[in-house]
Amino acid sequence: MARRRALLRRLRPAWRQRLLLVTLGALLCAALAWQVVMGQIRQGLEQSLLVSHRALQTEIDRFRYLPRVAGEDARIHAALNAPADADDIDAANRYLQKIAAQTGSGRLYLLNPAGVTIAASNWAEPDSYVGHDYSFRPYFTDARASGSGAVYAIGVTTGEPGYFISARVDDPDLGVHGVMVVKIDLRPLEQAWAETGQHLAVTDRDEVVFLSSVPAWRYRPLTPLPAATLERLDTSRLYARSDLDGAAPLLPKGATLRIDGKGRATTLRGTPFENGWRLLAATPLWPARAAALGTAALVLLAGLLGLGLADMRRHRQRLIALRLRQTEVMERKVRQRTAELAREVEARARVESDLRATQATLVQSEKMAALGRMSAAIVHEVSQPLAAMEATLTAAEFGLSHAPEKTAARLQSARGLIRRMQRMTQHLKNFSRREVAPLSPVSAVDVARSALALAKPRADAAGVALHCAAPADAPMVHAGHARLEQVLVNLLHNAIEAVDPGQGEVTLSIERSAAEVTLRVTDNGPGISPEVLPRVAEPFFSTKIGGEGLGLGLAICFEVVQQFGGRLDIRSNPGAGADIAVTLPLLTQHDQREAAE
User: Fold this and answer.
1) Domain Histidine kinase: where (predicted)?
2) pLDDT tens-place string over residues 506-536
3) Which residue of 69, 105, 116, 507 lies most exposed, with the fewest beta carbons within 10 A?
């Protein structure tokens, strides 16, 4: 216990030093992340200011020279020369209306030397400028004094804000003849800025915001306005109806600019514009703060994790040293168990080999038993052709001397009887041999016909009618010819034994679907009782009386069909016969070519 406490006392200073280094590294990385993100923010603000500056400049330049050009028209001069002439005034109104419609400008109107509107593009509208006195507006006084003027203001007639550009109309004889003014609506720029998520604003020479994508900034000064400035703005009525006197400054001393009414810290960038305007762009600082805090947290977490992993590594080395001996013991046990498992695997392999050999022997025994059961019928089938052949040969011998012309027909008949016995013996030979050949494409129709030929003698002896229903084509399956034939013969013999002699009927049909071939054996016997049906496929189970057979027929059939990749289904209703179906996968032409290769 004392040693552990002493060790802990030695480790604590080292842990404090490591923790201090990790904390300093986290703070350094946070500062670096802050600088990187702030640089990106400043670059984004500069780009936003540049694009917005160009957009605002382009919008103003579209109509900058429209008042001067429009003021050169003869109809304008005629209206100024004869303001009481209704025809001249009507011609000037329609001219201004046409120019405003074609150029897409807002309102275009003409002021006489006293500042009263005598013609306007909106002369026919309810809020027409005609007859209104705008002599107090700076754009009128500036145009009279210097030849041109420009100011952003809220319309005293319509209440709608706009940018007013004016140009003096001079007469060679009279001097100042009038002032032409165009009003431009810059509010679409505000909407575009707001839709892109930018926080932009434009201030006039008095640092009053008159355009902004943030509605809360509009018509508010950046800093408190002097009394003289407020009086001048009231006189010119630039921001009428905006309550500029009661508006709180956006940047009072020691405060930060708010976005959307939220007190989040922001950074502000500005660029000068014409007429003393400034274009401002602001963005919140939370991305930089989030990056700094996130970087600090990640570095701190990574450092703590590294310290923890280093400590775990030291503990692990100690554990490894302790477990090496246990590992050696376990390895010895594993080797012993592996040797035991190898012996068990070898023993199981021998047992499986013996089981396969026993199964093959049982199959052959069942086949031999089937041949024994067919022996009486085979003797009957062979004895008939032999007796007939003997009589035919005797008649042929007699005919050589008395009727030579009939001898050839009798010899042909004897040859047919011999072929019949050859076919029967060939079927018996194929049935009795032990097949070891691999699976190959075989014709289901050929196998069915061979099975019927082998079962026919027994069916004839029992007085049972055999029927065959095969399709026009010859579907192919992947199986062993002899083993599939043995399965069908076994099923046919079972069906023959199950029906009543003299009245029984057994049918072997072949059905083909899109992917399968079904060889179905049906009979009209009494069927299989529900108590016996679940056990018919069990080895050594038999319902035959007197010990006939080993009870392995259906069990072997099940095994053989499964080896072919198929299934054997048994269905029966008492009194309605049995239906046994051997279903095998259909072998397509492509599969046949692959098997051949």
Assistant:
1) 377-588
2) 888 898 888 889 989 988 888 777 776 666 6
3) 69
Least confident span in 46-55, 83-92, 112-121: 46-55
Assigned domain for 202 exists: no
Q: CA 425, CA 429: separation in Å to the nearest integer?
A: 6
Q: How far apart are the first and last CA of the chain?
A: 80
We report the CATH number of the domain holding residue 99 as: 3.30.450.20
Burial class (CB in 10 A: 0-12, 13-18, 19+), 154: middle
Spatial strand order in the sheet of 199-203: 209-212, 199-203, 278-284, 266-272
Shortest CA distance to 452 belongs to which of 416, 413, 423? 423
Task: Tell me which amino acid residue 168 is.
Answer: R
- Per residue, the 3-state secondary structure of 481-536, as one string, reads HHHHHHHHHHHHHHHHHHCCCCCCEEEEEEEECCCEEEEEEEECCCCCCCCCHHHC
| Residue 548: per-residue pLDDT | 46
Contact 421, 385 (CB under 8 A): yes
pLDDT in tens, 447-461: 888 888 888 888 888
How long, in residues, is the chain? Answer: 597
| Residue closest to 550 by CA, chosen among 351, 355, 353, 361 | 361
Q: Is the pLDDT of residue 501 over 60?
A: yes
Average confidence score pLDDT of the chain: 78
Give the per-residue pLDDT at 298.
Answer: 87
Give me the phi and psi of 119, to 5 degrees please: -155, 145
Looking at the domain assignment, is residue 446 inside a domain? yes
Contact 183, 107 (CB under 8 A): yes
What pLDDT digit, counting tens, does each position of 194-216 carry?
A: 888 888 888 888 888 888 888 88
Which structural domain range is residue 483 located in? 438-596
Q: Determine the Cα–Cα distance for residues 502 and 452; give it in Å rounded to an integer.
A: 18
- Retrieve residue 202's tokens: 């434009």
What is the number of domains present in the chain?
2
Nearest to 108 by CA among 124, 125, 95, 89: 95
Which pTM does this prediction carry? 0.47
Q: Is 387 exposed, middle or buried (0-12, 13-18, 19+ CB in 10 A)?
A: exposed
SS3 (DSSP) at 92: helix
Asked if 489 and 454 count as a contact pair (C-beta separation under 8 A), the reply is yes
Residue 257 covered by a domain = no
Amino acid, res. 437:
A
Tokens of 299: 């570095």
DSSP 426-479: HHHHHHHS---SPPEEEEHHHHHHHHHHHHHHHHHHHT-EEEEE--SS--EEEE
Assess whether pLDDT exceeds 50 at residue 263: no
Please give the C-alpha separations between residue 456 and each of 352, 420, 486, 526, 570, in angstroms, as whole numbers.
37, 13, 14, 21, 23
Three-state SS for 164? strand
State both tokens at 90. 């009507």
